[in-house]
Amino acid sequence: MPRQNISSGYAFEDAYGYSRAVRVGNQVFVSGTTARPPDLGGDAYVQAKAALATIADALAKTGAGMQHVVRTVVYVVDMADTQHVARAHSEAFDQIRPVSTLVQVSALTPASARVEIEAMAIVCG
Fold first, then answer.
1. Which PANTHER family does this chain map to (predicted)?
2. Which of 16, 34, 43, 107 would suit a FRET pair with 82, their CA atoms being 20 to 30 Å apart?
3. DSSP secondary structure, 3-56, as one string
4. What are phi and psi of 30, to 5 degrees?
5. Which backbone phi and psi does 60 adopt, to 5 degrees?
6. Do 55 and 67 form a contact (C-beta atoms < 8 A)?
7. What are 67-78's pLDDT values in tens digits?
8. What is the side-by-side order of every strand in the sheet holding 99-104?
9. 44-61 vs 82-93: helix axis angle to the nearest 10?
10. In whole angstroms, how far apart are CA 55 and each of 60, 65, 99, 114, 115?
11. First-to-last CA distance in the chain?
């Protein structure tokens, strides 16, 4: 089965040695994704929207879309941001309803990130 690696051009991908997304067969895995400047300076809602946009772009490069997402994992530094992150997640996935896990962590990279989101998609049909 062929493997397709997708880069978003983020310098940390080369420094860390990872891909933004990988497609193998009908499965697509998107790495944990944070906002980038200038959105990185925004609140958790702005950051989550930006991360989800980067995820959508990575999925598109594999021939998938947000409608194919079956699972997300959302990492937050502060549980007080949950409502902001949930709003962005709901706007992106309201009709899709992937399974999702929300986890509080002590820190993210970059340090100003308030939320990081990873996704898994299955392209059916």
1. BLR7761 PROTEIN, YJGH FAMILY PROTEIN
2. 16
3. EEEE----HHHHHHT--SEEEETTEEEEEEE---TTGGGS-HHHHHHHHHHHHH
4. -110, 125
5. -60, -35
6. no
7. 999 999 999 999
8. 3-6, 21-24, 27-33, 115-122, 69-76, 99-104
9. 30
10. 9, 9, 16, 16, 13
11. 17
Q: Which residues of 50-59 are buried (b: 16+ CB within 10 A; e: fewer)?
A: bbbebbbebb
CATH number of the domain at 40, please.
3.30.1330.40
Domain with 103, as residue range(s), is 3-122
User: What is the number of domains present in the chain?
Assistant: 1
If we measure between CA atoms, which residue out of 41, 49, 111 comes closest to residue 84? 49
State mean pLDDT over 33-56: 97
pTM score, whole prediction: 0.94
Q: By C-alpha distance, which of 28, 23, 33 is closest to 2?
A: 23
